[in-house]
Every structure is written in C-alpha cells, then in structure tokens.
Specification:
2 domains, 4 helices, 0% strand
C-alpha cells in the first residue's frame, strides 16, 4: 500500500519536524523570527561579491552572513530593536547585491 519512497519521505519529514520545532520556539523567543529571511537577502550580496571577485560562492556568502551577524550583534548592544535591524540590513544587503549583480559583465 505504501511505497518505500513515501515511507522514507514521511520519516525524513518527521525528523525535520522534531529538529525544527524547538529551534523555531527559540527563534521566536529571542525575537529573531526575521533572521532567516534577512540572511537569505544578504546571500544575494555574497553571491554578487564572490562572482565579482572570482572567489568561491560559498566563501562570499559565508563572509557576508558573518558580517551581518556581527553588525546585528554590535547594533543590538546599542539598544536598537532586533526586528528593525534585521529589516534594514536585509533590504540594504539585497539592494547592494542587486546593484553589484548589475555591474557584473
């Protein structure tokens, strides 16, 4: 009745649920629900910079993500709200990334 593929997919989904549920609660508790989207937007800047500098895409995205985390940490200590910082940084990184992509020939 159940295909072997479906059983494996259901077990994998159950494993993801068991791992993501506590992590999701922690993220909401720390008021960092926007952090994943902000990091994804910043990844565009990392890809653009890595293509422009002819380095590994992974290294470029990792560098931009770490830089974003450091900036968020420093500015949070100054009293700015986490969601405000993440919103501004996400859209600024996305804008700079799109401009950088447009200059790549």
């Amino acid at each position: 009745m159940l295909d072997d593929f479906m059983v494996r997919a259901a077990l994998a989904g159950l494993g993801v649920v068991l791992a993501a549920a506590p992590l999701g609660c922690f993220v909401v508790w720390r008021r960092m629900a926007f952090f994943g989207a902000a990091t994804a937007h910043a990844a565009v800047l990392g890809v653009a910079l890595s293509l422009a500098l002819s380095i590994s895409v992974f290294a470029g995205v990792l560098a931009v993500a770490l830089l974003m985390a450091i900036v968020v940490n420093v500015l949070t200590d100054r009293g700015y709200a986490m969601d405000t910082l993440l919103g501004v940084l996400a859209h600024a990184a996305l804008a700079f990334g799109l401009v950088a992509v447009s200059f790549i020939t």
